[in-house]
Amino acid sequence: MPVRLWATWTLVGAPYRKSLKTRSFEKAQQLVRDLEDGIQPKEAPRTVTLKNALDAFIVDCESRNLNQSTLRKYRSLRDNLNTHFPDASHLSECEIEGLREFRQQRKLGPRTAAKELERIRAFFGFCVENGWLQANPAKAIKAPQARVLPRLPFSEKEIQKITAKAIDDRELAFILTLRNTGLRTAAFASSRA
Fold first, then answer.
1. pTM above 0.70?
2. What residue ranges do the domains of the chain occupy?
3. Residue 182: left (phi > 0), alpha (psi -120 to 50), or beta?
4. Are 114 and 146 within 8 A, CB to CB?
5. CATH: 1.10.10.10, 1.10.150.130, 3.30.420.10, 1.20.1260.10. Which one for 50-140?
6. Which end of the chain is least crowded, N or C, by CB within 10 Å?
């Protein structure tokens, strides 16, 4: 029984070992010559719909035993993408312009939008790894700028107000522990007001 032929050599300084996906020696020689000339063999990507790709991605996420909150966010993304691209009969119909329009319609805050963009990139990265797409269209989309406001420590006057609200020694010890370890006392102080 004839076997498939493989190409094993150094191509542009890097080791190359791939199946030529042929059993014909003549065709294998032609493919090797094309590779040496810089002509990459064209592989037709498998035709997959957006819905099927999203479902496969969710199944993969579940099999990786991701946290339930993460799975809920991926499922929500699946539903939102299916709603935004209802006529996408092929995965490649989801292009950069459509993804930018999707992001613009969502009206999310900068941090939430950046996290959702990470999830979209993860999905399209999954599609590229499976050979359904040639490139990740979400990589070209820039994340929104999120300004982080610094949290200032309590002033001495605020600390005195918080410690004055302590009912007994146990609460005072708790407040001082929070203060000296750098943990938040704002929630405790607001609940006592």
1. no
2. 6-36, 50-140, 156-192
3. left
4. yes
5. 1.10.150.130
6. N
